[in-house]
Amino acid sequence: MNRKASAVWQGSGKDGNGQITTQSGVLSNNPYGFKTRFENEPGTNPEELIAAAHAGCFTMALAFQLQGAGFTADELRTEAVVTLEKDGEGFTITQSALTLTAKIPGIDRQKFDELAGIAEKNCPVSKVLNAKISLNATLSA
After folding, report:
1. Which of 18, 58, 72, 122 is the most exposed place for a label (fewest CB within 10 A)?
2. Of 92, 101, 104, 103, whose CA–CA distance to 129 is shortest?
3. Cα gap 96→109, rounded to integer Å
4. Region labeled Disordered — which residues (predicted)?
5. Angle CA(105)–CA(112)–CA(69) in degrees, nearest 5?
6. One pLDDT digit (tens) per residue for the chain, 141 residues
7. Coil, strand, or helix at residue 136?
């Protein structure tokens, strides 16, 4: 299976701008640039897209872990915060912090923690990130 996206850039690094498009069309010529990446101007940026990919990947991986163990979640809600830090002349993604709130009937805390840990380590996005990954998981009633 292959998935693809493309980026087009015009101009210099700080004053230029670009557009990101995904194969599915969910993103179509979405703007990004210095201001969307470093100054919170409306638009997207690579770190936001990585955070979305990690949150989605981990959450789906956990749903499959739960299914395999005989559980079905009422809700899994995950936020991923990706940290970009200055590294010499450039930048490095140093961390992806996952925060999960889950409502899963009939599961105990030990089994929940076990399955969430497996999902964290084995989702494909976790495997590709060369960064510290943390998980703060809450099981709600």
Report:
1. 72
2. 92
3. 23
4. 1-32
5. 75
6. 999 999 999 999 999 999 999 999 999 999 999 999 999 888 899 999 999 999 999 999 999 999 999 999 999 999 999 999 999 999 999 999 999 999 999 999 999 999 999 999 999 999 999 999 999 999 997
7. strand
Could you give the CA distance from residue 107 to residue 110 in angstroms, rounded to a whole number? Answer: 8
Instruction: Give the separation between CA 126 and CA 52, rounded to whole angstroms.
Output: 12
Locate the domains of the chain by residue range. Answer: 5-38, 46-139
Both tokens of 104, joined, read 């899963």
Distance CA 46, CA 36 (A): 10
Residue with tokens 């789906």: 60
CATH no. for 46-139: 3.30.300.20
